[in-house]
Amino acid sequence: MLLTMIRPLFKNKKFIIGITIFLFFFLSGILGPYFYKVDPTHMSWDFEQSPSANHPLGTDTYGRDILAQLLHGIRSSLYVGFLAAIISLVIGSIIGSLAAVKRGIIDDILMAITNIVLTTPSILIAILIASYLRVRSLEVVAVILGLFQWPWYARAIRAQLMSVMSREYVYLSRMAGYSDLRLVVEDLLPTIATYAFMSFVLFINGVNYVKLNFE
């Protein structure tokens, strides 16, 4: 099923170029530190050196190797971004799908919750929570960010699925006795696979932008 959902993406040249660039940075962050075994926090007397054989990208004001910092920074950013994006994607998909399928009072309640989270100063609240917990682990940062980034995605998913709900194959699935869960998984979510993937990438980008406020 997953292969069927993503197969159309590989017919798009822009997607292929984009995924190639993404894989380059992804592999750089994952494999780079194993091949370039330099401590990014190590300070030396080589202050602000230009690129050389010992330091391919030079050093910073404190004599730390810039390439080592870059590779480790990519890894931590991708890690936090992926965790937070997955959390946001799951929450947004569940709330958006339930609101579109159930309608009525459930839709009103879910959208009210979404609007409340959407209008709150999420960055400020996330920073306050992180400061109160006094925990600097990447996992905690990812969870906090993931809990505040989903509202716009939930609203978009709800709008798209409500338009899909009026199509004939959805009515046929209803007549066949499909449960709400089966209807969402088999009929509705595959129609928004491309948008979900795009949103996942935007989540990673947005989360890493907000992550700068924690550092």
Which residues form runs of ≥5 with pLDDT under 50?
A: none
Radius of gyration: 22 Å
**DSSP summary, beta strand count:** 0
Ends apart, CA distance between termini: 40 Å
Q: Helical region count? A: 10
How would you describe the shape? elongated
**Largest sheet properties:** none
Secondary structure category:
mainly alpha
Order of helices and strands: HHHHHHHHHH
Task: Report on the architecture of this protein.
The protein is mainly α and 215 residues long. Helix content is 71%, strand content 0%. The chain contains 10 helices and no strands. Helix 2 packs across helix 3 and helix 3 packs across helix 10.
Give descriptors for this structure.
215 residues; mainly alpha; 0% strand; elongated
A few lines on this structure:
With 215 residues, the protein is mostly helical. The protein contains ten helices and no strands.
Q: SSE layout and pairings?
A:
Blueprint: H1 2-6, H2 13-35, H3 66-102, H4 104-119, H5 122-133, H6 138-146, H7 151-164, H8 168-175, H9 180-188, H10 193-211
Helix pairs in contact: 2-3, 3-4, 3-6, 3-7, 3-10, 4-7, 5-6
